[in-house]
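Write out this protein's structure.
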Amino acid sequence: MADMVTFTIDGRSIEAPAGTTILEAAKGANILIPNLCHNEELAPYGACRMCMVETTHKKRTKLVVSCIAEASEGLEVRTDTERVRNVRTLVMHLLLARNPNHPVLKKMAAELGIEKSRFDVDFKGCIMCGQCVRVCREVVGVSAIGFESRGPARKIATPFNESPAACIACGSCHYVCPVGVIPMEEHDGVRTIWKTDFPMAKCSKCGKYFAPVKQLEYFRKLVDLPADHFDTCIDCRSIKK
């Protein structure tokens, strides 16, 4: 059994396995800490700073990012102090300047009493949470996209802004994006993503296009499946003969 630590969140006693992040422990106790870049399927990243909390340990008080800071014995965590609210408010103003109209951001902003950004809007859509880059690297394992440049010019891009040779058109980046700014379309047996067309495989039984050919080839080689394993879609394969 894992060693356990006991600490408090907003005065409430919490027990969690050693190594658990403050955010994970809070979720387990149904305590809300707002966040945008955290995903349970990905390694902790700490990009958005919305999950900042204030902690006190051995009389030392500081602000920490709860999605990467681990809970420790005797730690005191406060999720709604003036310092915490100031940080979250600033972060939300910056996010709204990049994407002022997305429902998720507007809802979070409203909870902080913010109607619009105090900064000039420079619409970029992407909020730089990094989930798309991380899911491509950590889950899919191809690293077809990444970060480009630094500071205000930083963005998500394909290598050299060309068609990504490593991309398998799985759409994981599209599905994981919390603000829906990675377009993906399917039409006439072709999936288009990152400005690149990928042919779709057609089921030999029902004739339905069901997945990109490149994605199926990647999975087939990854686990050494027979060449005809993906000749049919999942619906037809599940039908009992």
